[in-house]
Amino acid sequence: MNGVRDLVADIFMEAGVSRDTIVYEPFLPGHFRARKKWDMAIRYKGSLVAAIELKSQVGSVGKNINNRFEEALGSGADTWAAQKKAQAYGEVPPWLGYVFILQETEETEKRNRSVKALFPTDPVFAGMSYSERYQEMIRRFMADGIYQAGWFITTKVDESGQVSYSEPLAMATGRAFRVAVQGRVDYVRSVIDGTS
């Protein structure tokens, strides 16, 4: 994850922020809890440019997928509640990014996972693999404004040990993430400095 973290930092610097504005593993205020440690935050003249979560899943997906969902949802919802209830981040609202790397295996790609529950579940999930469920999670996080940008990467290791990468979710590719970051940096600078 350190390599991906450095790549995300580079994207912000290419967008116009300086390295000294990037903070790794900062605590940020919440509403339902006092604070939460994020993987990265970027500041500009006292305002939060972005807070980024970087997560991965390698093996044991079935045992951990709900934990990943709940962590991501909790972090985003708590941050937005802190802003709505107490203006914790000031006049410039938060901007949250979620970067997720999933190792592609037979387990992650198997379709028709059970969606049985005590009451009917959303039919969209019927037949989805774990990989597709993660993609739907990120899609909904962004559509509902919990996270403003996402980047979903899958990795695959072949028999020779060669690693390949894929970005199966069009709205959460490295290119889309880069464009979103540039827009956010431009927005914050225009608000703070009065320039575009």
Report the order of strands and helices: HEEEEEHEHHEEH
Spans where pLDDT lies below 50 across 5 or more residues: none
Report the count of strand segments. Answer: 8
- The overall pLDDT, averaged over residues, is 93
Structural classification? alpha/beta
Q: Helix fraction?
A: 25-40%
Which sequence of strands runs across the widest sheet? 1-4-5-6-7-8
Distance between the termini: 33 Å
Overall 3D geometry?
globular
Largest sheet: number of strands, sense, barrel closure:
6 strands, mixed
Please tell me how large the radius of gyration is. 18 Å
Strand content: 15-25%
Structure description:
The chain has 196 residues and is α/β, with parallel strands linked by helices. The chain has one domain (2-187). Helices cover 39% and strands 23% of the residues. The protein has helices spanning 2-14, 61-86, 106-109, 130-143, 174-193, and strands at 22-24, 27-29, 35-37, 40-44, 47-57, 96-103, 149-157, 163-166. The strands form two sheets. The protein has a six-stranded mixed beta sheet, with helices on both faces. Helix 2 (61-86) runs parallel beside helix 4. The longest helix has 26 residues, at 61-86. The chain is globular. The two termini are 33 Å apart.
